[in-house]
Amino acid sequence: MSSGVCDSLGVSIAGGKGSPLGDIPIFIAMIQANGVAAKTHRLKVGDRIVSINGQSVDSLSHSDAVTTLKNSYGKIIMQVVADTNISAIATQVESLTGSSSLSATDTHTTEPEGPRPRSISLEKGSEGLGFSIVGGFGSPHGDLPIYVKTVFSKGAAAVDGRLKRGDQILTVNGESLQAATHEQAVAILKKQKGTVTLDVLS
């Protein structure tokens, strides 16, 4: 997982310049139950981090932000903003990092609470499907699901209007992208013709 856990604080962060989800603000992706951050009861998954000890994190890359947090000791002042847009992505990141620790029965009982996948059918024309993807198994940032990186202004996705940046693609015409590498996912999308049905999590 790319969200480098900052052990002393008990938080994982995601986002930053050049992150696997794109150039998005740095936000809290996970809070460890027994960490310092959890005990304050003031930080939430999805909170956007504005500054750490007075230093703005706006222009920092993901790794720089992790280093800044790791190198902070003693009293750490973190300025955060609850950001609904980022909360949606954080929920995906959290379910992705949390799923490995759940047993199959737990996963089943918690399922109705989480976002349900939806199907989007696109007509692949001369402009193609019209979006790019990021992530994949064995990506530079670890084993990640396949996410929509950019929806282009032309192409089937733009015409349809439902697919958004940050959506996780689960299947393409019934073919699962779970454990697919980035290259395999690109190849699967490229070979489709006509109507292409995607199962996505928003």
Question: Can you tell me about this structure?
Answer:
It is a single chain. The protein is of the alpha+beta class. Helices cover 25% and strands 37% of the residues. The protein contains six helices and twelve strands. Strands 7, 8, 9, 10, 11 and 12 form a six-stranded antiparallel sheet that branches. Strands 1-2-3 form a three-stranded antiparallel sheet. A hairpin with a 2-residue loop joins strand 8 (131-139) and strand 9. It is elongated. The two termini are 19 Å apart.
Q: Roughly what fraction of the amino acids lie in strands? A: 35-45%
Average pLDDT confidence is 80
Helix content: 25-40%
The number of distinct helices, counting runs of at least 4 residues, comes to 6
Largest sheet: 6 strands, antiparallel
Low-confidence residue ranges: 1-5, 98-112
Rounded Rg: 18 Å
How many extended strands?
A: 12
General shape: elongated
Q: What is the succession of H and E elements? A: EEEHEEHEHHEEEHEEHE
How widely separated are the two ends? 19 Å
Structural class based on helices, strands and sheet pairing = alpha+beta
In quaternary terms, these chains amount to single chain
Features:
single chain, 202 residues, alpha+beta, 6-stranded antiparallel beta sheet, 3-stranded antiparallel beta sheet, 6 helices, 12 strands, elongated
